[in-house]
Task: inverse folding
């Protein structure tokens, strides 16, 4: 079994928005949701016991809440936005969208409180520094080599606190408090315009506040996740931000055309900054023209996902810049995953696919965890890059 570092899981959002107790097995969660309607209901893939079963010992655990854009932002993006969340006063996602940044911030604080309670209960631990990450990875390595066979309980899952879309940060001046509370990575937008940048569904620049937020992330050492960010805003952010960047969960635009995906140019830029890209298990991002709601036998396979890994490796000239950012239970369930993946533990099968495609064993380990592990050991507070600097 291979150790997994997953760069994107919405654990607290699932708990707070769908009432999923993340300490329960997925089978129990599915049974509780039997007969419910809505995307992914009764088909969840992920919980803390399932992650332990999969040896997913470290993840980026998100805070996810969106604020509808202010009227001025709506007007500014009117010409460039496709699929914006804003339709008059309508909130399009009751499990995600809030009327303003204050309510959005409170929702994210509730998710943060959930993680803290799980830490208090011994289910997980916050990883705030490179030393924390190294210690957690070593605990899992030792357990996989010795403890599992001896029947010992798995270690606590380590989480690096992430923010998917920066709407909960009401003003740039509040950013240091978020850092103090454990925030270590963030992207600027989600879908549509945020207070800071254009997100998925359109293109546009950083807002003036977005320019200042990127500078503040750079100053504090909050690692910039380029996921969901419009192409123009990405270029501006790269010009402002001096540290390495990464993408928590994104696939290749060359294989599945969509602005949510990464262009070849962007993949090369991320590699040039020694960043890592986590490939995603959401079916529509793996194959073109995926039909939601269809026969699950028509879903992509892990072989299709491997094509995205291949593409990143070929573009960048090595396997150094690709990892896993599964996004499992990210608003969908196993109705929208590769056919082999009905729960998180099935992710272990991906190594066999990569092996058959000629990837060496140590390279597969680097994709499963090593590349992201190196990235965070170098770039979190106390990391080797910081020490050298």
Result:
């Amino acid at each position: 079994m291979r150790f997994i570092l997953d760069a994107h899981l919405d654990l607290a959002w699932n708990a707070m928005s769908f009432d999923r107790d993340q300490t329960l097995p997925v089978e129990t969660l599915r049974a509780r949701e039997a007969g419910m309607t809505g995307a992914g209901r009764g088909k969840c893939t992920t919980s803390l016991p399932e992650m332990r079963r999969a040896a997913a010992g470290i993840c980026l655990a998100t805070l996810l809440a969106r604020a509808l854009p202010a009227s001025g932002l709506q007007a500014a993006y009117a010409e460039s936005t496709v699929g914006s969340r804003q339709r008059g006063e309508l909130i399009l996602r009751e499990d995600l969208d809030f009327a303003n940044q204050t309510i959005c911030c409170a929702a994210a604080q509730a998710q943060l409180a959930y993680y803290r309670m799980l830490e208090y209960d011994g289910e997980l631990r916050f990883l705030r520094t490179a030393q924390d990450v190294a210690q957690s990875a070593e605990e899992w390595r030792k357990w996989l080599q010795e403890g599992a066979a001896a029947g010992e309980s798995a270690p606590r899952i380590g989480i690096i606190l992430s923010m998917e879309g920066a709407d909960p940060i009401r003003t740039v001046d509040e950013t240091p408090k978020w850092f103090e509370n454990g925030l270590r990575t963030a992207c600027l937008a989600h879908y549509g315009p945020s207070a800071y940048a254009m997100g998925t569904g359109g293109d546009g620049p950083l807002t003036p506040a977005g320019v200042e937020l990127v500078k503040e992330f750079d100053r504090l050492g909050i690692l910039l996740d380029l996921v969901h960010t419009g192409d123009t805003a990405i270029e501006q952010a790269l010009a402002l931000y001096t540290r390495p960047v990464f993408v928590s969960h994104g696939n290749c635009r060359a294989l599945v055309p969509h602005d949510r995906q990464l262009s070849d140019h962007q993949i090369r830029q991320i590699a040039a900054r020694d960043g890592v890209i986590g490939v995603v298990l959401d079916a529509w991002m793996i194959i073109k023209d995926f039909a939601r709601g269809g026969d699950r036998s028509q879903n992509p396979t892990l072989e299709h996902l491997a094509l995205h890994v291949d593409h990143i490796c070929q573009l960048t000239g090595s396997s150094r810049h690709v990892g896993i950012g599964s996004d499992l239970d990210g608003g969908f369930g196993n109705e929208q995953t590769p056919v082999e993946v009905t729960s998180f533990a099935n992710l272990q099968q991906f190594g066999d696919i990569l092996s058959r495609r000629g990837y060496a064993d140590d390279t597969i380990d680097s994709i499963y965890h090593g590349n992201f592990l190196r990235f965070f050991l170098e770039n979190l507070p106390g990391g080797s890059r910081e020490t050298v600097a």
